[in-house]
Automatic annotation (TrEMBL):
The keyword Oxidoreductase applies. Residues 6-294 form the Prephenate/arogenate dehydrogenase domain. This is Prephenate/arogenate dehydrogenase family protein. It comes from Pseudogemmobacter faecipullorum. The keyword NAD does not apply. InterPro entries: 6-PGluconate_DH-like_C_sf, NAD(P)-bd_dom_sf, PDH_C, PDH_N, Preph/Arog_dehydrog, Prephen_DH. It holds the Pfam family PDH_N.
Length: 307
């Protein structure tokens, strides 16, 4: 058991909170887990599956807690913090799991009382499922968990949180919030937007092709549909709160797309081949760095790609 953080409160009981609870329980890391969710149905499921106690208000949930995890959509982090703030125990650690960091810090920080430690965080692990039944204990194993500590952060509190996250299998790294938001716009947020768009295009086409785009969908498109099935509230909030970084990356994306479009129109095969060779090398870099668990072994065993 973690001596440092025995009582945990989870605010919002969806995919990430339930996965944390399962992982903490599976490893016997905490003494008790209290959960808060708005709906009675969610609270009942949480009590049955992974919480020791559930409460009808967020304020009630945090009273005794050593660690409070804000696991709600990014757009409501501020209001929920305002609600719990007067009830936080001195010395408690508040962290969040939001996919955007700058906006969360701006919304949450002003409400954090003196003597309480706020350590923003983001697990780079998830699925397209949501709600209290979607969590599982191994979600964070060997996945990055980025912390974006604020200036003057208490190193002892940071070390306690880091140790707990590492104990549930995460690889913890620290990063400045603005940088986090730009990096995530590239590797997660904009790709999600592209997936949403592509599935939207296919949906329009469905009427013309009489369902064939769905029936014959290849694995690339299936991946898009999986991503595009993610929670709409969560992703609406991500795009609205990481607006600047996403618009920056989207601008660069459309420039490249127009360039490729022109090369296709003009039949510029050499340029297209050179471009695809560069992107193939990036994929190989990810696999060699051990960051892609979906890559089959034969990919590496086969050695160099065909020239
Ligand atoms: N789903 C994913 O793959 C990942 C999500 N995240 C972040 O984790 C956070 C939670 O996401 P999930 O667990 O996936 O979502 P989820 O949809 O499974 O759960 C969110 C929970 O928050 C509750 N909630 C929503 N609005 C609320 C409000 N106004 N007051 C109180 N509770 C409210 C919902 O009822 C639900 O219980 C989000 O900030 C998201 O950006 C981070 C990494 C991965
Ligand atoms: O399911 C997927 O492909 C994901 O990309 C999961 C995910 C979604 C949002 C995050 O902030 C982090 C990870």
């Amino acid at each position: 058991m973690s001596e440092a953080l025995p009582r945990v409160a989870l605010i919002g009981l969806g995919l990430i909170a339930s996965s944390m609870a399962h992982a903490l329980r599976a490893k016997g890391l905490v003494r008790d887990i209290t959960g808060y969710a708005r709906s009675a149905e969610t609270r009942a499921v949480a009590l049955e599956l992974f919480c020791d106690r559930v409460t009808e208000s967020a304020a009630e949930a945090v009273k005794e807690a050593d660690l409070i995890v804000l696991a709600v959509p990014v757009g409501v982090m501020g209001e929920i913090t305002a609600e719990i703030a007067p009830h936080l125990k001195p010395g408690a650690i508040v962290t969040d799991v939001g996919s955007v960091k700058g906006a969360v810090i701006e919304a949450v920080s002003p409400h954090i009382p003196q003597g309480v430690h706020f350590i923003p965080g983001h697990p780079l692990a998830g699925t397209e499922y949501s709600g209290p039944r979607s969590g599982f204990a191994t979600l964070f194993e060997n996945r990055w968990w980025l912390l974006t500590p604020l200036e003057g952060q208490d190193p002892a509190a940071l070390a306690r949180l880091r140790a707990l996250l590492e104990a549930i299998g995460a690889n913890v790294d620290e990063m400045e919030a603005k940088r986090h938001d730009l990096v995530l716009a590239v590797v997660s947020h904009t790709p999600h937007l592209i997936a949403y768009t592509m599935v939207g295009v296919a949906d329009h086409l469905r009427r013309v092709t009489h369902e064939e785009v769905i029936k014959y969908s290849a694995s690339g498109f299936r991946d898009f549909t999986r991503i595009a099935a993610s929670d709409p509230t969560m992703w609406r909030d991500v795009f609205l709160t990481n607006k600047d970084a996403v618009l920056d990356i989207l601008g660069r994306f459309t420039e490249e797309l127009f360039m490729l479009q022109r090369q296709i129109r003009m039949g510029e095969g050499e340029q297209l081949h050179a471009y695809f060779s560069r992107t193939r090398a990036i994929r190989r870099g990810i696999i060699d760095a051990g960051q892609d668990t979906s890559a089959p072994d034969f990919g590496r065993a086969a050695g160099q790609p065909k020239a």
